[in-house]
Write a structure and sequence with these properties.
Radius of gyration: 57 Å
Shape: rod-shaped
Strand content: 5-15%
Number of domains: 3
Number of strands: 10
Largest sheet: 5 strands, mixed
Order of helices and strands: HHHHEHHHHEHHEHEEHEEHEEE
Number of helices: 13
């Protein structure tokens, strides 16, 4: 408020009124606008309304029209950053009548009151009628730039027209929409230069040929920033012009990543030479390089953190896979052991079952062994049987007894093997004495050639 203390009481009141009417929060910006219009409150407010609606200011001096100078606006000190629509108040508002009363006190007497009241009514009617006429014109003859189109097509058409009119020497245009350009600049952490092209402006051809077509400027822009441009006669260019709030042409804006969003850090309005423009852009880039450095450092830190986390996750997954593999092997080993134990138990049960079956057979087949004949029986045949254990068995059979009887006798002996065959000594001949379903009838001892004392050998087939 130190600057406001040097103002007169009337200037201070105008400053407060202008802030209320324009909606600009920064008091220093309000003062600068009023000073530029010689403290004429009505002119300053109307000028702000015109610039907000995209109409050129009618309050520039003739000297400014004849000798336009480029305006370079760095964010933070630009009055244009804070231009907002004029706020309307309802008729009969106490604030407006208070304003009229204030003018009465300043101008004195009934004359001042009538003058202030007339001025208030005139401004209110003028603003209302202008808004109605402007809305009516837009309703019956809408601006074609307000209708949507393909942004990429608009940009491509502009680049083709630019090269047709001014040649191929120019910074490399980003052939995409404004949103795509913002996304690429943000992703690549680069400066973004936006050029808004106005074909009707008198300085546009010279600026395009001498500045945008300068080899040094082209090399500087291509190496330092992403370059995007479009004509304000297209819907895409018009939309961007409204967003960037340009006031004059040629228009350039410099954007950079700040606080995770692309922010305008500098504007250039009006024609400028290539050297002057390069110097200005270099200065703005130097002032805002810190934000890119911080963004790169933050991105590198996030990348390092993500890489470290990914490595930790991979190590954890590898450890988890190893643990799973160990658990799988342990499970397979347990299953293998369990299967072996099951098979062993099954084999034991089968063996026990077989032994039990053999025991039962020995008991059952013992009844099939015929009675031994006496020694003086003329049909008696003395047989000597040698078991694999060395046990010697002797018994008499009749000639008409079958070889199965001989087999039953050997099988039912406690020291006999479970599976065996009986053969003669010399010449060695295996006797077909084992009972089978395929051989229901078996030879007798006489048919087998056993008519006198014989020595037979038992061979263990499981040995």
């Amino acid at each position: 408020m130190a600057d406001n203390e040097a103002l007169s009481g009337e200037e201070t009141e105008k400053l407060l009124q202008f802030q209320e009417l324009s909606g600009i929060d920064d008091m220093s910006v309000c003062r600068e606008v009023l000073q530029r219009h010689s403290w004429d409150l009505e002119v300053a407010v109307q000028d702000q309304l015109n610039m907000r609606e995209g109409r050129p200011s009618v309050f520039f001096s003739s000297r400014e029209r004849e000798n336009p100078t480029p305006v370079i606006d760095a964010v933070g000190s630009s009055p244009n950053r804070n231009i907002v629509p004029v706020r309307a108040f309802p008729a009969g508002s106490w604030w407006r009548w208070g304003e009229a009363a204030g003018e009465t006190r300043r101008r004195g007497g009934i004359t001042g009151f009538i003058t202030g009241l007339f001025s208030f009514v005139f401004r209110l009617c003028y603003g209302t009628i202008a808004s109605i006429l402007f809305s009516a014109v837009n309703l019956f003859r809408p601006d074609p730039r307000l209708f949507g189109s393909d942004p990429v097509t608009d940009v491509a058409a502009f680049v083709t027209e630019f090269e047709s009119n001014f040649g191929p020497v120019h910074p490399v245009f980003f052939r995409g929409s404004y949103s795509d350009a913002l996304a690429h600049a943000k992703r690549d952490l680069r400066f973004l230069i936006v050029y808004l092209h106005s074909p009707q402006h008198q300085d546009t051809p010279t600026f395009c040929r001498s500045t945008l077509g300068d080899q040094e400027f082209v090399a500087f822009v291509d190496s330092q920033a992403l370059f995007w441009g479009c004509s304000v006669t297209t819907p895409e260019g018009y939309r961007v012009a409204l967003m960037l709030r340009e006031c004059s042409y040629p228009f350039l804006a410099l954007l950079v990543l700040r606080d995770s969003r692309m922010t305008v850090v500098g504007r250039l309005e009006g024609a400028a030479g290539p050297q002057e423009l390069i110097a200005t852009l270099q200065e703005l880039m130097s002032e805002n390089e810190a934000s890119l450095i911080a963004a790169r450092a933050d991105r590198n830190e996030r990348s390092f953190t993500q890489t470290l986390r990914r490595q930790q996750d991979e190590a954890y997954e590898e450890s988890l896979r190893a643990d799973r593999e160990k658990e799988r092997r342990r499970k397979e080993e347990r299953e293998r052991i369990e299967e072996e134990m099951r098979l062993k138990e099954e084999a034991i049960r089968e063996e026990q079952k077989r032994i039990e079956e053999i025991r039962r057979q020995k008991i059952d087949w013992a009844t099939r062994v015929p009675e031994e004949p006496s020694a003086d029986d003329p049909e008696a045949v003395h047989v000597v049987i040698k078991l694999p254990t060395g046990k010697r068995l002797e018994r008499r059979f009749r000639l008409r007894h079958t070889l199965q009887s001989l087999y039953y006798y050997v099988f039912c002996h406690p020291e006999s093997p479970d599976s065996f065959e009986i053969a003669t000594n010399f010449p060695k001949k295996v006797l077909q004495c084992m009972p089978t379903e395929s051989m229901p009838s078996v030879q007798t001892l006489e048919e087998a050639g056993l008519r006198r004392g014989e020595v037979l050998f038992v061979y263990d087939l499981e040995a």
